[in-house]
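[Discussion] Sanity-checking designs against the backbone

I'm trying to build intuition for which residues belong where. Below is a structure token string of 192 positions. I'd appreciate it if someone posts a full sequence so I can compare it with mine line by line.
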């Protein structure tokens, strides 16, 4: 790390980094995974559990984790989509990369940065968030996707752009089976 060229970015992953590495790093992200409280999981006809995963916390890494999971699922043949609630529809790096992957879509549906000091979000942000939420509902209940990432939804609910109660309802009432689940109507990649 001391002698790396200035134009090379190093990303080190894995648990248990020692103190010397942490001290030399420019950015340290700590993601902590915590299991939800015990609750019965419903299984569908193929005995597949379709979990709901919440990725939250301070610091960086949440979107990156979700992007990685969606990329992996899509490359395994599961049709996936990423719905971004805050980012504006610009050609970000992840948008360009995802355009090259099979079975994966990304929709940046926000207006970009929020004025976090404003007492009330702007009408522009509220209207955009309403349309993004309607699109999200269409995607969830279309049964076309095996994985849907609601990126930045926690931010949207925190600032009152999307109702936390509506998000909770979707999590409880989401369909258990999609056309892209094994045994559904969706296409899967065959492996030789």
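Best answer:
Here's mine. Compare freely.
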């Amino acid at each position: 790390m001391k002698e790396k060229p200035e134009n090379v970015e190093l990303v080190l992953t894995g648990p248990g980094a020692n103190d010397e590495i942490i001290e030399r790093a420019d950015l340290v992200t700590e993601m902590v995974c915590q299991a939800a409280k015990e609750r019965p999981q419903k299984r569908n006809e193929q005995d597949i559990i379709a979990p709901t995963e919440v990725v939250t916390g301070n610091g960086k890494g949440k979107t990156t984790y979700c992007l990685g999971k969606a990329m992996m699922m899509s490359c395994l043949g599961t049709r996936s989509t990423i719905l971004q609630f805050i980012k504006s529809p610009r050609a970000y790096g992840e948008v360009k990369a995802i355009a090259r992957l099979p079975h994966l879509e990304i929709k940046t549906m926000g207006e970009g940065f929020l004025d976090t000091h404003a007492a009330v979000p702007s009408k522009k942000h509220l209207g955009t968030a309403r349309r993004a939420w309607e699109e999200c509902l269409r995607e969830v209940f279309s049964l076309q996707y095996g994985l849907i990432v609601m990126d930045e939804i926690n931010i949207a609910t925190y600032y009152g752009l999307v109702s936390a109660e509506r998000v909770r309802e979707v999590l409880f009432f989401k369909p258990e089976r999609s056309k892209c689940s094994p045994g559904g109507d969706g296409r899967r990649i065959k492996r030789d």
